[in-house]
Amino acid sequence: MERLRRWYAWFRRHGPRLRDLIFIGFSLLYTLAQAMSQGGAQSSITFVVGIAASLALWWRRKYPVAVTFVAIVAQATTMVFAPLGFALFTLAIRRRDTVLALTSLAAYAAYVLGYGPENGRNELAVLFVTGPFVVGLWVAAGAYIGARRDLMASLRDRAERAESERELRAEQARLGERARIAQEMHDVLAHKVSLIALHAGGLEVNPGVGPEKVESSAGLIRETARQAMEDLREVLGVLRTDVSADGADLAPVPAATDLSRLVDASRAAGVNVSARIELPAEVPAALGRTVYRIVQESLTNVHKHARGAATEVLVTPERQQIVVRVANLRPVASGALLPGSGAGLVGLRERVNLVGGALMAGPTVDGGWQVEARLPWTPAPPDPSAAPADPTAAQTGPAAAPEHGEAAADRPDETEGENKVAQ
């Protein structure tokens, strides 16, 4: 089997030249037979011209048209048809156009002129009839092989292009997934790490606090670090290949219902946060996750760059859209606890754009900073067959006021004329 493979590889490498030698050898034999059938000076002419036309077949692939015309001349003068047949065969493989048609007509004329004088005028009719079949047989064979080669080359090229496009799409998908995971890790971990830095910074600037305060802050740092590790496991879970089928080892994706827990974590870190959250229960999950990430990233930036600044969180429906606004006053301390990566607001803008919303972020007139997002949302029409709801249960704003530290009814409406600079 190995010897057969080596023989096949050798034939693939030397096959074209081997076929050239076969064609030349057959043409020389045909020329010798044709010269021996003739007599006198014509025999010598046939022998010389036939040998020249046969040897010209060595260059049939490089100069197919020129070799074909040499064979046409040989056929017209000496009736040596073998070189002409092989030349037409090669030309038909290389090209199937007007040049082939004109060359075939010239070969047909050479066939008739070459055999006509020898057979007499009475045989011209037979030559006119058999000529197209003789010449056409070589042309048809070459055209079939050439068309088949072109088809195989086209299929091979299409397969290579499809393979390269598939690899390109796979690479783009991998890069997109890496970017998504990196953004998710930033959103998840930056908030927790900023809380840890805020707690540690409070102990650093207040070295005289009692042991109870130190113990409380250490417990908060430990709990926040544990949550950060759980969030990290959640994000990295998408990279695992041995995740169980039920996904029990992965934590659920944060949603809008976790906003209260998010605000409470910032309050526990010492940030003065007042919140008004009036998010309808029928908000889609994707939109709820976007709301959560906006509030999370905004509070993370407050922890990093505006420690000690009073912050206001507003999440409320307004004219078929959800308005998310997080604004903080001028920070009382300069400098940042953690360096910024510059990817937070960029990632938020991408998230908001994916749901068709708009994000505005920039300084306020009083020196603070504000992030505002408007996310499109169309509430479902009320069901007329449903029983009327309790009016007191629908007032989520005032009911949430004791939990978030501020009544919704006592807060003036926010104006839309504040200075918002996109970051």
Automatic annotation (TrEMBL):
Span list, region Disordered: 374-423
Transmembrane segments: 21-37, 43-59, 66-93, 99-117, 124-147
Protein's name in the database: histidine kinase
GO molecular function: kinase activity
UniProt entry tagged with the keyword Kinase: yes
This enzyme's EC code(s): 2.7.13.3
Keywords: ATP-binding, Kinase, Membrane, Nucleotide-binding, Phosphoprotein, Transferase, Transmembrane, Transmembrane helix, Two-component regulatory system
Regions of compositional bias (Low complexity) in chain numbering: 386-402
Record bears the keyword Acetylation: no
Catalysed transformations (reactions): ATP + protein L-histidine = ADP + protein N-phospho-L-histidine
Organism, scientific name: Kribbella deserti
Domain Signal transduction histidine kinase subgroup 3 dimerisation and phosphoacceptor span(s) in chain numbering: 177-242
Basic and acidic residues biased stretches: 403-423
